[in-house]
Specification:
10 helices, GMP Synthetase, Chain A, domain 3, 3-stranded antiparallel sheet, Arc Repressor Mutant, subunit A, about 280 residues
Length: about 280
């Protein structure tokens, strides 16, 4: 039995912004009834400011799909298209208080519907990821392409076939494509390793270091601390020294040094630079 947060339960039983907008400014549609999940997102956009003034959805899927679609509409109303375009599937899952790993594909579907709607508003070809030129269908049961799997692995740091199935549904039926998925995982990680090696051979600029630190804290650190009622503030970056302040339950915690050394520091050394240092600012 999956463990759902109270927010997931609330958005499933009392979903927000359900329905269809008459004469919408943008529509994004992803998924397929054949595959078991489908989402249609409608937007009203202020042409002068490009702010989303209204968002509604229609979905066919499980409780997680409904909850993800519901909270997505709450998240994007009042945002500009540029701001909304930065929302990731991890943001959707985090806003719901987390999703079971087996249901992360529902948050991915919400992100892709938003991308399709923004492309539709801008008059761009709103082809789904499954229809990208040169893409190969890897999972015939759910119609998932190599491009979609590659993107999920890269953006969510997936390392196993099971994780790919949780995020994309690929390999979740007959399992005959598992070997292909495993090949893609190894290829993407090899590519990311090569890119990291090339980057390591060149001096990192302060601007790039700041970007990577912020991205790593947002993606890898803060969600984990939040689970235990804690948080972290980035105070300053001086060269390779990252100064942070622990917040919430983490502030003054007896294992704060462990958190900084073995969690925060480890993630920054993995995703930013191998010799980066973390210092706690307490005042």
């Amino acid at each position: 039995m999956w463990d759902y947060s109270e927010k997931v339960k609330d958005h499933f039983t009392h979903p927000h912004n359900v329905g269809e907008i008459v004469n919408p400014d943008a529509v994004g549609e992803v998924g397929s009834l054949v595959c078991g999940d489908a989402l249609k997102l409608f937007l009203k956009v202020d042409s002068r400011t490009e702010k989303i003034s209204e968002a509604k959805f229609q979905t066919f899927g499980c409780g997680s799909a409904i909850a993800s679609s519901s909270i997505l509409t709450d998240m994007i109303i009042g945002k500009t298209l540029a701001e909304a375009s930065r929302i990731t599937n991890r943001d959707i899952a985090e806003a719901l208080g987390g999703l079971p790993q087996e249901k992360m594909h529902c948050s991915v579907m919400g992100m892709e519907a938003l991308e399709a709607a923004i492309a539709n508003y801008r008059g761009q070809a709103a082809a789904s990821h499954e229809e990208e030129e040169g893409a190969e269908i890897v999972c015939k049961c759910f119609g998932v392409t190599d491009r979609k799997i590659e993107r999920a692995v890269r953006e969510n740091r997936l390392k196993t076939v099971e994780e790919v199935t949780n995020y994309t549904k690929a390999g979740g039926a007959c399992a005959s494509c598992h070997w292909k998925i495993d090949e893609i995982i190894r290829r993407v990680w090899q590519d990311m390793g090569d890119q990291a090696q090339k980057a390591a051979e060149k001096p990192m600029t302060n601007l790039r270091r700041m970007q990577l630190v912020q991205e790593t804290l947002d993606r890898e650190v803060r969600p984990e601390l939040k689970k235990d009622g804690g948080g972290l503030e980035l105070v300053d970056i001086e060269g390779k020294v990252v100064k942070v302040r622990l917040l919430g339950m983490c502030a003054g915690c007896q294992v704060a040094n462990f958190t900084l050394r073995d969690m925060v520091g480890k993630k920054l050394r993995e995703f930013v630079e191998p010799d980066i240092e973390v210092v706690e600012i307490k005042e």
